[in-house]
Design a protein that fits this description.
The complex is a heterodimer of chains A (503) and B (250). Chain A is an all-alpha fold and 503 residues long. Chain A contains 22 helices and two strands. A two-stranded antiparallel sheet of chain A has the order 1-2. In chain A, a hairpin with a 6-residue loop joins β1 and β2. In chain A, α8 crosses α19, α9 packs antiparallel against α17 and α12 crosses α13. Chain B has a two-stranded antiparallel ribbon with strand order 1-2. In chain B, a hairpin with a 2-residue loop joins β1 and β2. The longest helix of chain B is centred in the N-terminal third of the chain and has 28 residues. With 250 residues, chain B is mainly α. Helices cover 71% and strands 2% of the residues of chain B. Classes of the chains: A mainly alpha (503), B mainly alpha (250). Chains A and B meet through α8, α17, α18 and α19 of A and α1, α2, α5, α6 and α9 of B.
Chain lengths: 503, 250
Amino acid sequence: MIDFLLTQLMGFGGAFYALVADPITYIYLISSVFLGIVFGALPGLTATLAVTILTGFFGNKIPLDYALIALLGAYVGAIYGGSYPSILLNIPGTAASAASAMDGHPLAKAGRGGEALGMTTTASFIGTLIGTTALLIFVWVLLLISQNIASPEKALLALFGILLSGTLMSEDLVVKGWISGMIGLAMAMVGLDPLLSEPRYTFGWSYLLSGFQVVPVLMGAFAIPQIIESLRYAKPGDLVQLKGRVLPNFGQVKKHMPTIARSGVIGTGVGALPGVGEDVAGWVSYGVGKSVSKEPKKFGKGSLEGLLSSETANNACIGGALIPLLVLGIPGSPPAAALMGAFRINNIIPGPTIDPEIILRVVAIMVLASFTMFIMGLFTARLFIQILRLPQTVFLPIVMVLTTIGSFSVGGGINDLYLMLGVGAVAYLMGILRYPIAPLVIGVILGGLFDETFRRSLFLSDGNPMVFISRPGAAILLFMNVALILSQLKFLHRLVRKIFVRS
Amino acid sequence: MAISKDKAILRARDFWGALVLIALSLFFLWRTSFIPLFGENRAGVSGADWYNSAALAPLGIFSALLLMSISMLVTSIKDGGAAQAFSAIGLGFERAEVWRIVTLAIVLLSYIAGLVPRVDFILCSGLLITALIFGYHSGLQRRMGIAAISMFIAGAYALIANFPRSQWNKPHDDDWVTLVVWVVLTLYMLVTARNERVMRFVPWIAVLAPTILVCAMAFGFRQNVPNRGGLIFSQIEYQYYVNIRPMWSK
């Protein structure tokens, strides 16, 4: 065990040194974390959008190392940046910071805005480090286990990721989440099939032979609905004057360390669930924090404990979300789905066959990004507060131009723009009907893997469906899929209740 | 049990959504029948077995989608969605919102389908930024209409005058038309909305943002950008390669 940890640390040290010694690292790191915080701080822009836009901009245009710095830096920065409008405007900058507004804003109104921001910055920093440490340790353990994963397990795991994401991301009926995932899977079926090169649903259009490209789909799914929805008159929010110093008090940090540590672990755990993002992590941690707190009545009225519970968890979720992405090729959150897109356009397939060096570099980048975020958050907080005054109708048109040029330059030209607009219109309509978008994107990303591994499993077993039961791993995953579906069926709920009442 | 008004609207919309999904599932199930499933012969070559067929996964996916859509339809009918489906309230129809969406659709479609392939990227993006900020910042319906008309004039002209792909990258008068529309819209904005502080910054944002982006993409990342032969970008590219780049090449 000690040998394992030492090897890990040495590998990480090497990757970290290589990054630190390269001056270009700092250019990408500082600019991407800054951009991420700006995206997070501006209500109407999200962490997913930040990573998606940067995927289009940097994805395959610069060496992978620098692209990863830009994307991970923006991811870390944006999740943290969402806390600014939550605390000072009572408007969550990102969905991940929705729980933070409950206590952050009352704190700011009570003249403790500086303290709230300082503690949030520190908690986000520690949370990111907890998630990153878990990534460094567990990714290797899981990678060793995942070496035994074959096609049946991969197919069932991909399906489980889509179903779980649909179940947990649905605001309304769970079936809407599943339908969204199925639409994503259906979109992934377009083009030449991966085993026999049989054209499917191309309607004679040669562009569709290569299937739907990931970046335009990401841009369409995440950017276009956001632009359509937010381009409207919005009354400027009442910005609370920041009072008190932002630099946190060491004693205060020490006092709240148990809350931060607990929330970090919860955030990492939630992040590791396929397809479940930072917003769920924030709420789960907030709920747990309230139930174990000595002062639960203070929650929602300006509790620092409540604020730290959600803010630590949403940043810790980043490291957690990268675990299934790197080990299994299944994104742990919507921004991780965008990261997956960046890997794909660089011809890197995350999963058991991924180059271990890439994982070490990801960990090193995460550590550097969290330090950069911490320093920026503490010393340039007042600059970011100025950004909150910017109306969304001013920056969203620029986002539209960014998505257009980013989508165009990935490779498909004008056809990619049509695809982006089409997916955007569908995603907007789905949003109106309260269908979650993340399962759709995860479906598009995992659809190819599901199709290929599902059919390969049957091919290798001469069409015997028992291949999904005869292997222990596959049997467990099949059980999980079935249990997940059955758990959502109402008539089964009623049946179980009746049986229990009778007994 | 009475359900809330929001939920009633949602269920009415779900009713239509489920019908569309059922229609789509059936259509794609029919299209899936075009893909060989049971090892049919194609051009004398035997197809794959059923378990290896390219139709297998789509068949499962669209069947699942059909079942889920039917379940959605049943839920929406049970919750009163069908009863409200034809009413304006049931559809959630709100005149102001429909106007906003329609004008926005015209703006975005004109930009993507008409302008970006055919007109200089800096010009069409500058026009887009101006139209979107002027049209939607204050929420006035008249401004939304003006923004949509401006984009439509430029987009429709480019689309009609230079429709074929072979004409996309060539310099045409559609660049000039877009420039004129942009200038007119900017002047109109500066006159009519002179009291709004934001509008004073719009021309700067509209010129600088696309210029910086397109130059960064073309010269920084050396990537393909739309319409290299456009009115402004062709000049920038010429100056860059002929006058600027040799300075540090030496």
